[in-house]
Amino acid sequence: MSDDNPTVKSAGPTAPAGPKDGAKAAEPRHIVLSSHPRKGPRAAPEIHWGAPTAKERGPVIGSQANPQQRNVIGVHSGAYGVYRALAIAAGKLSPVHRPDLTDTHPPVDIPPQPQWSNPDSIVSMDPWGHLVAAEFREEIKSGLDIRPTIAITRARIQFPELVAEMHKGRIKPDGKILMENGDASVVKAAIEPVWYLPGIAKRLNVSETQLRRSLYEHTGSMFSDLVTRTDRKEFLPPIGGITLYIFGSVENLVSGQNEIACRVHDECNGSDVFGSDICTCRPYLVHGIEECILSAQRGGSGLIVYNRKEGRALGEVVKFLVYNARKRNPAGDTAAAYFEKTECVAGVQDVRFQDLMPDVFNWLGIRRIDRWISMSNMKFDAMAAHGIEIVKRVPIPDDMIPKDASVEMDAKKAAGYYTDGTTSAASGKLEDTKGRSLDGY
Length: 441
Ligand SMILES: [Zn+2]
Prior knowledge:
- The protein has helices at 54-57, 81-89, 132-135, 137-141, 160-168, 197-204, 208-217, 225-228, 250-255, 269-272, 281-297, 310-313, 316-327, 338-346, 359-364, 377-385, 406-414, and strands spanning 8-10, 31-33, 73-74, 150-157, 184-191, 195-196, 234-236, 242-248, 260-266, 301-307, 333-334, 368-372, 389-393, 434-435.
- By secondary structure, the protein is an alpha/beta fold.
- A 7-stranded mixed beta sheet has the order 4-5-8-10-9-12-13, sandwiched between helices.
- Helix 16 (377-385) links the parallel strand 12 and strand 13 (389-393).
- The structure holds zinc ion.
- Zinc ion (ZN) is lined by residues 268, 271, 279, 281.
């Protein structure tokens, strides 16, 4: 780095100390570049992805509190890292604040599984992410800012649809898994993405160099370390994470002794939260939860995997543009044009990359799902590629499909999604399944 520019220095041995605590620290004198690895005894701890113990694997350090300790590309908290940067810029958060992890440990055990020490089994999350406060106690005490990338807690949840099902007698309260008032008792886990770049490249069947270059260039050069720091193999991408909702026994989920029901659900805010009727997302989620409760009540477990992959990971703006293009189609919003309209706007039908989805099952040690609440072949094939057995696929009952969503449902069936072979249109023709037009709201 040239000395002509007094505001930028490399993070070599002569780099200035980090900014001092307090709001004024939001304006450090120098920008500390991380483009060259530091050498010597004060170097950041190494990560050996797939090593059999946490100590041998090494901690993931994405904190900026002490840049010399960092051993990954990117920062913690996924997309929320940007808000943290805003808070520091606004002087509301000290850049050197370190979390107090007292009493934050999980209330249930997710113990190490053989898959944790196979670098091919888990490439998109840190399997030790919920255990760092215990596994790296001494390192944290000695001053390393090691943060959990997984948090596990307990909750009760309630869906009005499930209360209605209870009143109809389709599900019954038991006072433990499902309460009289319709509350369901769950264990929930939040998981932040931690990408092992060589493993991600292997899953996608591209070279690591290609992967790094594309991530660098097509995020507007957001992370230059992707191309300059090939010694750093782990990336904390600025994307949404995963939430697990576990019904019934967590031990059974891990041991697989009794039955397991599961739905892998990709976020659809419009339907999941607001009940928009253009798709089957929320009804499918409710159906999945119902099956999870039933499995748990039979002595097994239920698992909802909720992935923040809005609009097939294309985002909500693209999704709403596609809705309009579908609704303004001269032939009407037909099942025949469903996928085509997405491709017209986005250039691709789907970027969820289900190849990464099985990681969470490998983390839990799951080898078999008895009831798989999904009709997606992409999800089914991804599980098969990891040798995870799916015993029975359970499609959504027809009476749970909203009227406008028959377009999506029939298009998916025609595209080869798992089905019982029926379509909504009386004629059986795809062109005859139509949703309402933009004037029909
Ligand atoms: Zn949806």
